């Protein structure tokens, strides 16, 4: 790819104590650096003394020359407002690893959206505790690593997973119906960098077998929830949810089959937002600028 | 209204142990009675030894003469298949009482759909533990009874409510955001005859203040659940559920305001199905033939 | 109401040729005026030479003193960027007139949302070509004007309507299932200030009897479209659309009854956005900042 | 597969002039043949003199012996009520051919649902006017036939297509974003046996480039329509429709990308209903018994 085709788009994400003047200071600075703001969103938990969040997309001509300068120069503004911040370049695609077990619907949805160009991400590797999906993954030209997990070998397995992740320089992980619970230390290493799909409308039906529980309760809508993983099972910040109408004719197995279609939609949307840096996490919630 | 305008439509609802021959026996019998079946639905929990449910709508010429005969004659078929059954006449509109507190959105939705002819029901009386909604109710030509409820007077109040309900010959009760919990004995007297609207997507956020809980959890969809009341709070058979997409900009109060619009939709739909005898209750679930 | 309770919130809406520096200039200016930006949205049809749109909400302490200054001072910035712009104060509620014929569902939805505080607007008057809805309107403490319309008297009737509108200092008009077509001169006087609800999913089923047409075509979803009125019937900028799933059991009349519930939802949402100055019109489309 | 695992389920589809006694006669007959009705649906365009439609699912013990008898014996009942009818066996899976061009999303959705067991159908062959999707199709173990189509060779190409279809004993065809218009004679040979997905919410945006048209009109929802092909382009009986909310930020290309996700859902659902014999066509509409 020639440099002239590279995107000149960057994204600035900020959070800080709210106070007057933030928008003016940031936009003034970007203007001085010749950046052209093409989108900006902001949210404040409370205009009087709350936390302020902002996401700015800008185009930057002469990107290669100016981007490092902005990265350096912004630090002083950030300091004066006590900002947490990060600056992302669209031309630098994120690297995503997918963890799967045996079910393929979420994986295939991600792979299809990736190949069609809908997900602007790199997928160097898929990791699985089973060998079932090797062929399909490799047919997409993606490395497949089979790392079996048992109760006894769990920590060793996670060590292997981490090595694979490091070796591919992975930015974030997607659990595409990966049926294993990750250890607290693993979760800690990847805070707000592991997206899971839970097959229920959280907080209903936390834990195992949500479709059976939904059947037993006789609900009229089933759902799926994409969320960041935290130590509390199924309690992490919710990114997206989707539902589907069902009726008394659906047995537990039918709910499971129908549910696949909402699982993959909710997960794909959440992954897309993560890729485009549209998600900010605040306490145990997400702010989605889309 | 002249008799010639009265509906000749009737509805037969059946549940019994499943076995071959039920549909044939029932439809044969109705055919012999000159009834013309215009709709029929059935469901079996398990074709091999489960429970069988059926709802049949039929037109019956010379209704006044033949209907009592069918009512009488069907008993022997019902006995031979061990059926629970009921036979409803469309011309005999159900009588519905509405219980409210101070919030009016569910009540007004029901009143509007009633006046527009969408809900084919009579509403002789609205009962409230507050006097706030008297004027609006009376402007619809409906009696309004203010029966205050305190912890101490609860059982007396329920006694008064029952007297009002008896005096109006009420068939079923709708709790349109009625903020009181009914006593077990009251619930028992009206089994599967009290419809409540809970302001969450059950079983998420059972109990008080669901919108605050939804806000605290950071959900991306809020919901409402219409269900029959049982002794277990918010655990009765679900009739209908509806959801609405929300985002981080919604505070707890905004969720409450937005939620009204799904509450009233789910409740109105559930009431309509009840009126049209489209709901069969099986264990703690509903079968909706619509 | 005491001054201290008045809102200090204002909204600035801008459109202009896109170029670098707009956001910086505007936010810098507001910052100098002590305004605290609490929300800002922007959109550009094309970052290279397109049209730029922005909506900013800000809080302004000492509102009464400073607001007129901003109003005056902003003109020079606006000039330098060739902006079309307007500045709205939340404390100055818009005045809305509703036009109706005989059907009441859209009117009642608006009145209920108005009384519940969901629509922050004043409704001084309802105008109708029939006298049917007088009682209900007057029960809300709103003036009702019956102005009959026939082919022959149409222009005179519109003249009377304009006088009523002027006398109440109306800001915008909502056609809540008003079954008359407005003349080009009337439409011209209220450009982007008349919101209509069309009872189909435009551009499907333009013109009269859309539910009959939807029935004839056998569609599986019906819809409603809220849009600004222009001279081309049903061709004005679309503000919002909503749909509802139907099936073969719905006759044309059932579609009409069911459709009311999407009509009122789409219309109420569009009106709410208009009230909050969330809509910018660009050519024949709307930009909704919500 | 051993015979003992074969399904004993059959489906009877009927349409005839409405008159009393149809349900009784049919269910009586099935009862005599030892069939156990597990589901039945019916619909009448008008109980007084309209057309009557029925779909019955039944289990039949000793299937191999009794099914041919039913097939033969039912003819006399059918005659007496002037029925059009067909009797389908679940154990005899339909054979489906898929026509594609270059876009793969609808094809892949069908293939995935087929492999996961969600679509109970056989897919012996995929036919395309391009060679692009050969590898992916063959990786599923399905034959791929490349039959180029030009204006000049269209009829010859259709002749080839028919030969392939005959050679695989195909029951129905799915146009999964096949960008060619079929000739009247081809359509005639496969009446109500060719399902197409049109990438708009019909009847809006008939013909080519619907996403561009949707963009130009500024709609707030985009849609997709699955329908049977008839000679009138995009005018055939609608089977299913699905929509997706969009906003001003979607360019024509974004609409196209987003639209893929509703196209594949609507198409997959329509195909599933066709496979399960849930669709009856009446004039230019469908009756869906689901």
From TrEMBL, chains A, B, C, D:
Keyword check for Ligase: no
Keywords in alphabetical order: Hydrolase, One-carbon metabolism, Purine biosynthesis
InterPro entries attached to this UniProt entry: ACT-like_dom_sf, ACT_dom, Formyl-FH4-Hydrolase_C, Formyl_transf_N, Formyl_transf_N_sf, PurU, PurU_ACT
GO biological process annotation, one example: 'de novo' IMP biosynthetic process
Positions of the ACT domain: 11-85
GO molecular-function term, one example from the UniProt record: formyltetrahydrofolate deformylase activity
CDD domains assigned to the protein according to its UniProt record, in alphabetical order: ACT_F4HF-DF, FMT_core_Formyl-FH4-Hydrolase_C
Pfam families: ACT, Formyl_trans_N
EC number: 3.5.1.10
Pathway entry: Purine metabolism; IMP biosynthesis via de novo pathway; formate from 10-formyl-5,6,7,8-tetrahydrofolate: step 1/1
Keyword Hydrolase found: yes
Xref: Gene3D superfamilies: 3.30.70.260, Formyl transferase, N-terminal domain
Cited function: Catalyzes the hydrolysis of 10-formyltetrahydrofolate (formyl-FH4) to formate and tetrahydrofolate (FH4).
HAMAP family for this protein: PurU (MF_01927)
Assigned protein family: Belongs to the PurU family.
Protein's name according to its UniProt entry: Formyltetrahydrofolate deformylase
Organism: Salibacterium qingdaonense
